[in-house]
Write a structure and sequence with these properties.
This protein is α+β, with helices and mostly antiparallel strands and 386 residues long. Helices cover 40% and strands 20% of the residues. The longest helix is centred in the middle third of the chain and has 20 residues. The chain is globular. The C terminus is likely disordered.
Length: 386
């Protein structure tokens, strides 16, 4: 019997209540089910064997859900690598675009409005750089990441934007920019977001829009983290901060069947806070952050969203020749070796490499020959269609 982590235990104990009382959408239930059965051998496993001594080893399948803390962490490592491959070798600024509390309920009721956040940030950043020199059209590179949660797990959608400190003109000239006008960013972001929301929601939003202008005369809060001076720092920062899950299991201190205790450092003053919630309330806080299926939590803009020949002149943080090496670090075997210091496919008896023998999925044995034939047919299908 495999051992569940604390988050799997919490959701398993209250699964029927979630399904029949809370009744979340199909996408949410699918992510919950997958997370609960992550690394459960009865739902799928690969069997490896040592060709020298006959030692067998079972490796259960992971769920591949972004909601799962372990699979979500692996997913974040992979997307951090993809983001790093696009980075230009220059200084970057980390800006955070936030919204006032009275607007959050609109995004909670209609998750499609989250697109307005991305559109507003993109328009503001491009407009700021276009003011530098309209004739030469300086374009920066930026990556926007949506976080819908605060450290206390409450609904707090905001955009983290990793922005290059400079722009590339149409005639191939790079202009370094060290000063960002945050007064402009705050006011422009407020205007762009309210206009986007008004166009989506309609006339009923007009009263709230007017109130936001009156209550936030200085604009919506936009603040900057310290600038990231070199490429290695930027790459580490992406993996550690921008790609973090809603909550790590290490932050859950106790679960007694009825209540959940977790901790966090409050953002305002970095004070250590311990909070205890009824298990159902804890679950409600978590599941509201599960994104809609196919919703893009990361968007690329400017230089990082286009493919022009002139952009090939720019130096990248990771050269193309190193992509294959870095990509190998995210493979299952290499990831375990680099993280925990042991080879999962090394036979514990004779130290030889173990070979794949068979696969099981949904309680049924899967033929390796069948898998090979499927893979080859797909490969030939792609070639013939090309």
């Amino acid at each position: 019997m495999y051992k569940k982590n604390i988050l799997q235990t919490i959701f398993s104990d209250h699964f029927e209540y979630i399904q029949y009382a809370l009744r979340p959408g199909k996408n949410v239930m699918d992510n919950i089910k997958r997370m609960i059965h992550c690394h459960d051998p009865s739902y799928g496993q690969a069997v490896y064997g040592c060709p020298h001594c006959g030692k067998l080893k079972s490796v259960p399948f992971s769920c591949k859900s972004r909601f799962c803390p372990s699979c979500g962490n692996m997913y974040n490592q992979k997307r951090a690598f993809r983001m790093s491959c696009k980075l230009i070798s220059c200084n970057h600024r980390h800006c955070v675009f936030t919204i006032p509390e009275e607007l959050r309920i609109y995004f909670l009721k209609d998750h499609s409005l989250l697109n307005c956040l991305f559109h507003a940030v993109r328009d503001v950043v491009l407009r700021m750089f276009s003011k530098l020199n309209k004739t030469e059209n300086f374009t920066p590179g930026f990556i926007c990441v949506l976080h819908s949660f605060g450290r206390d797990l409450k609904w707090n959608p905001h955009i983290h934007c990793l922005l290059s400190e400079g722009g590339f003109s149409d005639d191939g000239f790079w202009r370094h920019v060290s000063h960002f006008n945050y007064s402009y960013l705050r006011n422009a972001f407020r205007t762009a977001l309210l206009n986007e929301m008004h166009s989506k929601i309609g006339p009923s939003f007009k009263k709230i829009k007017s109130k936001c202008y009156n209550d936030h005369k200085q604009g919506f809060y936009v603040y900057a983290k310290p600038n990231l001076s070199d490429s290695k720092t930027v790459i580490k920062y992406i993996g550690r901060y921008l790609g973090r899950p809603v909550i790590a299991t290490s932050r859950i201190d106790n679960y007694d069947g009825d209540t959940v205790t977790f901790h966090y450092n409050r953002h305002e003053d970095n004070k250590y806070i311990v909070e205890t919630l009824p298990a159902i309330d804890f679950i409600k806080r978590l599941i509201r952050h599960i994104p809609e299926k196919h919703f893009k939590m990361i968007r690329y803009g400017g230089l990082y969203a286009r493919h022009r020949k002139t952009d090939e002149k720019l130096y990248r943080a990771i050269s193309k020749s190193k992509h294959r090496i870095y990509r190998s670090f995210n493979q299952w075997r290499t990831a375990i070796l680099s993280s925990f210091g042991y080879d999962p496919l090394e036979c514990p008896n004779c130290k030889q490499k173990m070979e794949l023998l068979e696969l099981y999925y949904n309680h049924k044995r899967v033929s390796l020959e069948e898998l090979y034939e499927r893979a080859m047919s797909k490969s030939f299908g792609k070639r013939s269609s090309a």
